[in-house]
Amino acid sequence: MAQINDMMGSFELFQPTELDGAMDLLRRHGEEAWVLSGGMDTFDWLKDRAKRPTVVVDLGGIEELKGIQADNRTLRIGAMTTLTEVANHSEIRSRFPIVAQSAEKVATPQIRNQGTLGGNLCQDTRCWYYRAGWPCYRAGGNTCYANAPGALNREHSILEANRCVAVTPSDVAPTLIALDAEMEIRGRRGTRRVRAEDFFIGPAIDITRMTVLQPSELLTAIHIPDTWAGRPMYFEKVADRKAWDFALVNVASALEVSNGTIHDARIVVGGVAARPLRMRETERAISGHAPNDQTLEVAAQAAVQGARPLQFNEYKVALTKNLVKRAIREARS
Amino acid sequence: MVGLGWDIFWAVVFLGALFVVGHAILAARKKRATPPPAPADPDLAARVPEKVTRHNGSARISHWVLALATLALLITGFVPILGLQFPWVTIHWIAGIILTGYLLYHVVDTVRRGTLGTMWIGREEISKGIERLKGFFSKGQGAEEKPGKWGTENIAFHHVTALAGIAVIATGLLMMFRVDTWFWSANPYVLGISDNLWGWVYVLHGVAAVGFVGLLMAHIYFAVRPDNFWITRSMFKGWITRDEYLGHHDPELWPVDEGTGASPPASARRTAAADRAGD
Ligand SMILES: Cc1cc2nc3c(=O)[nH]c(=O)nc-3n(C[C@H](O)[C@H](O)[C@H](O)COP(=O)(O)OP(=O)(O)OC[C@H]3O[C@@H](n4cnc5c(N)ncnc54)[C@H](O)[C@@H]3O)c2cc1C
Predict the structure, then answer these.
(1) Domains detected in chain B
(2) Is A216's C-beta closer than 6 angstroms to any atom of ligand 1?
(3) φ and ψ of A37, to 5 deg
């Protein structure tokens, strides 16, 4: 169990200044090593001693992981770029406003100043049973405490649960999937690119991980193609409070609309499953149709098909439906 | 307690590899010391058809179904732990159901054919097994007694596999209640099993599963050994040749029908054995 004692256990801290150096360290220490970016998620784990790495590799000194570069085909955001920088960047605001909006909705200004985009995408789930150090499935155990009778599961999943009912916490992840971004990953065998949609994984694939990243792999950058720039898009986050709180449900969309008809759409919902879910049925249902009330109703229904709410999160079904409708109706260029 | 530490998987793989290498070395040494078998008694040979049925159609089909289910279970069970990610849970429980179906079929079929007794290990089988083992380890040629259809080592392998199979199926069926299937929604509280007991269920499932890894390594090793090719072939084609039959088996213990080459029904075999005992 976690010990909330605000004192981290001891570990060896490495502060490489080059990516190759960091990769070397990760290779050498494998599963023992913990990657530290802004520390906003990391320090919770370490202080609560729910995770006890023996080695911490701080990416803070690696300049090549920082910054935003744009050309007319893609936008490359280094994994160590802070959320504040992402939210304020003029190219991002003009070409991909939903990325800036979603980054701006994260937590508080202080956390956004310190937290990085890479860390936001790689952060672990906020399920309190898991984070409190209960030996649940995600922690390598054999039960889910959040799905027990009377468990506090108001924030948990309604879709795609597979033994574990935790949800993805990131606000930025759905927007990157909606814009068909790619994750640049550095590993033992060099660099590979993974579509944002495939970067996040559910418990059916690996119950102990939220992403495809293996130990000793690093997310180095995020590439957003120009495909959806200038098209109607939308982001909305619903949380209990305007600041601090994680999304109960968030939604991101990017549409291709001409002559009043939707020709293509990408709609992604966060907070309803362990990974941000692309609503493919919804996308299919609205393609070739005008965004009228009837289309929206069909779209909303398709989004929650197969939903299995837990004891305290039935409200997420209605919330998801309404957010999906809004993501279609209110998308703006 | 929540489950088995997966390092044990590597320990079993290591031990399995050690067994395979050790056996291969000993078997090569033994082969050099063993002269070719003496030709069979021509009278006896005349009574045996050219092809002797070792595994009939249903036995072969069920063996390969079992093989596929086991492979699917081991791949879906262990490959994700080794780092290759794919949605494994559904394939795993479906393969588990197939394995359970196989077990039920096998038990019913064995009872129906009355061949349960062929898997008995009594005092005689134990002493024969020891003799064969001694023969294998001895430097010289060793007086090796031929077994009936199954040697003691085959029967022992069967029993260990059966034990691991029953453990993995019983625990697996319980664990299946904790995932969504086509038949029910996940219910982590099925039968009111305590957390501690669940721990044991997971550990037993893990132990049986890594046990299967070792058993499968040994099984595949014996199947691909050139000197066992005749047995492996019979699992595809069903038959062994007259020479293979007479060279490796004791026709008294495993009599075959003169016309068809098939084993006579168990009841007939029992009568024949009783007749011989009375001779
Ligand atoms: C009070 C509070 C409120 C919050 N509210 C929100 C919210 O509303 N919406 C939201 O989206 N987020 C929210 N967050 C989460 C916050 O955005 C993340 O904790 C933060 O972005 C993580 O970034 P970081 O740079 O601090 O990463 P760290 O905490 O250092 O790392 C997070 C995880 O990612 C791994 N990691 C980091 N970088 C990499 C990399 N480059 N490659 C591989 N692995 C890496 C680390 O090992 C660690 O497991 C909140 C956090 C707090 C503390």
Answers:
(1) 7-40+55-239 (1.20.950.20)
(2) no
(3) -105, -95
